Known about the structure:
A: alpha/beta; Four Helix Bundle (Hemerythrin (Met), subunit A); Rossmann fold; 434 Repressor (Amino-terminal Domain); eight-stranded mixed sheet; B: alpha/beta; 11 helices; disordered N terminus
Amino acid sequence: MLQELGDKLDGVLRKLKGHGKLTEKNIADSMRDIRRALLEADVNYKVAKQFINDVEQRALGQEVIKSITPGQMVVKIIHDELAKLMGEKDVPVNFGNALPGVLMLCGLQGSGKTTLAGKLAFHFRKKGRNPLLVAADIYRPAAIDQLKLVGNAINVPVHAEDIQDALTIAKNGIDYARKHMMDTVIIDTAGRLHIDEKMMQEVKNIKNTVKPSEILFVADAMTGQDAVKSAKAFAEYLDFDGVVLTKMDGDARGGAALSIRAVTNKPIKFISTGEKVEQLETFHPDRIASRILGMGDVVSLVERAQETIDQEKAATLEKRLRRQEFTLEDFFDQLQQIKKMGPLQDILSMIPGAQNKALKNLNVDEGALVRVEAIINSMTTDERRSPHIINGSRRKRIARGSGTSVQEVNRLLNQFTMMRKMMKQMNRGGGRMRMPLGF
Amino acid sequence: MLNVFSKLSKGLAKTRAGLVDSISTVVRGRRIDDNVLDELEELLILSDVGIDTADKIIKDIRDRARREGVISETDVMTILKEDIVSLFVHSAEHAPSTVSARPHVISVVGVNGTGKTTTIGKLANRFQQQGAKVLLAAADTFRAAAVDQLHIWATRSHADIIHSQPGADPASVAFDALKAAISREVDILLIDTAGRLHTKANLMAELSKIHNVLKRHIPEAPHEVLLVLDATTGQNGLSQARQFAQAVHVTGLVLTKLDGTAKGGIVFSIARELNIPVRYIGVGEGIDDLAEFNAESFVEALFQ
C-alpha cells in the first residue's frame, strides 16, 4: 500500500540528503522528480503542481539554508507538506447525540460501498454500538441480496424492502432502528455517476429527509485523474463529512487520496484493505505520510500489537523462557499471535526502513506460516512438548499428516533447536528477553 | 436501436468534449511554444494517459515544431491522432480471429468493482440478439450475491446459466459449465470470475487454475480472455493489465463506465506497453450500453 510512491520518493530524497549544500538547481531537479512520482501515483495534475510549489518555496527559504543538514530539512518539509495535504489530524466519525446515529454511504459504481457497509457495521459493533444496515440500492441487480448476505455473515440485521423507492426504505429503516432500540444506522446507497443529475438528486433527497449525522464518500484507491471531478461533484451535492478509500491492499499508489482531500478539504476517515470484514483501518494522516516516506509507522505497529496480543499469555511465555521450558506449543501460540496482527506484508510496511529494496524484494510467503502450523498440528502432544523424541519414522508420519515433506519438518525442528540454543545463551548472559518472534 | 446509438454517442461525446475541446482551446491561434506544450501535457495527463505516453506525444510535437518552425493547430491534432492510432493499430493485430470454435469460451476477468458481471450481461444479450446460443457460468463463488446478480442478467438476456453453491470451487463451476456447453451445443460460453486484486498471488493462481481446467477439455479454451477495466482507473490500470496478462493470456480489454467524465486514457499506455487491444466499451447500466471498440473511430471521435 502506497509503497511504490514511497519507493519513488525514497530515491529522490536519498539524493537530497546526500548534498552537503543545496543549490537552486539541485532543488529544482528534485522537485521535477517528485512531480513525476506524484503524477505516476495519480495525484491530480493541479494538486501536484501546488504541492511542488509549496515545497519549493519553503525549501528555498531561510530555514533550509541556515540548517546544517539542508537535505534532511527538505525531507522534513516534504513530510510536513504531505501530512498537511492529507489533513493534519484524525477526524473520527461523529454520531453526536442523534439516536439513532445515521451514517450514509455514497459513491460511484464499483467503489465498494456494500462491502464497506458490512465492515463499518462490524467496526461500530466492536466499539459497543448496535448497528442496523439499510439496503437503499434499488438499482443494481442483487445489491439488496448482497447486503443481506453481508449482514448475515456478521449477525447484523438488514432492513430491506421490495419497493422502488430508496427514500422510503431509508426512512423506514431509521424508524425500525428507533423501534428496536438500535443506536446506529448505516445506509448503503446505489452507485451513481456524479453527472447523473436525477440520481444525484435522489441521494440529495435522502440526505435532506433523513439528515444523516455522517455522510461518507467511498472512493476506489485506484482512481486516476477523474477522482477530483467525482469527489467535487459529490461534495457539492451532499457536502459529505469524510472519505473512505477502498482497495488499498492493491499496489495503487494512492494519489487519489491526496487529490480528493486537497480539492474537497474533507478528511479521509478510513481505509479499507482487504476482502475480510475486519480489514478496515482508521486513517491517520501523519502516520501515512511517514509510511510513504519510508519512515515507518511504529505507533500503528505498537497499537496493533497491544490490540491483538494477549498480555497474560505474553507474561507466562516470558516466565517459561526464563526457565528454559520453551516448547513447540509455545512457538505455535506465538505464531497465532503474530497472525492475528494481520498480513505480514502489512506489518513489515510499518517498520522503519522497511521501504528499502532488500526488504521489499523479500516476498513474504504467508503460506509458509500455514505449513509450519500444519506441521505442528500433525504432532502429538508429547512430541510438541519434547521435540527430541521425534525420530525418523515420526518425521515421516508428521510430513504425511501435514501434507509437507520430511525436509520441511527437519527444517522446522532445526530452527526450533537453534532458537532454544539462542535463548539459553541469552539467559546465561542475563539479558532481558521479551517476546522473541522467532524470525 | 436508435436509442442505443444516441446513448453511445452521448457517452463518447463527454469524453470527446473533455479532451478535444480543451485541446482546441489550448492550441487555437497560438504559436506552439513551451507554454502551449505544457498545457497540452496537462490535458493528456488529466486524461490518465500517463506521464510516459504524454511525454512521448509532446516530444513528437516539439520535434516537429522545431523542424518546421511554425505548426498549426491542425498539425498538432494530426500528430496526436497519428501517435495514438499507431498504438492501437499495432495492438489490434493481436485481436483474436472471429468466432470459429463451438463452444467459443470467453473468460471475463478483472479487479473488484470494474463491472465484470454487468459486462457479461450485456455481452450475453448482444450475442443472443445475433442469434447465438449463450451459456453463462457463475464462477464468482466468492462475492456475496454475485450469483444472484448474474441470474438476473441471464433472465434479461434470455441466456442459460450454470451455477453452484456460494464458496464452491470456481474451477469446478467453470468445468461443469464447459461440459454443459458442449452437451447443449451452445455457441458461446461466458465465464464470470470473481473480482481479484492483481497483487494477490494466490487469487491470480486460482485464475490460472480455472483456465487450466478448461484447457483439459478443450486445449484452445478459453478462446478469449477479456480484462475488464474501469475507465476511472488511473496509472494502476497498467499494473492490473501487466499482472493479469502474466497470469492468464489476456486477449482483449473492456473499458467500462465511459459514460462518466473519465477518459480511460490508461488504455493508450496499455496498448503501448502490452499490445492488448480494447475490444468493447461500456457506456451505461442498460443492457444495450455496450459497443464494439473501433480504434480508428474512437480516436477519430476523440480528436475530430
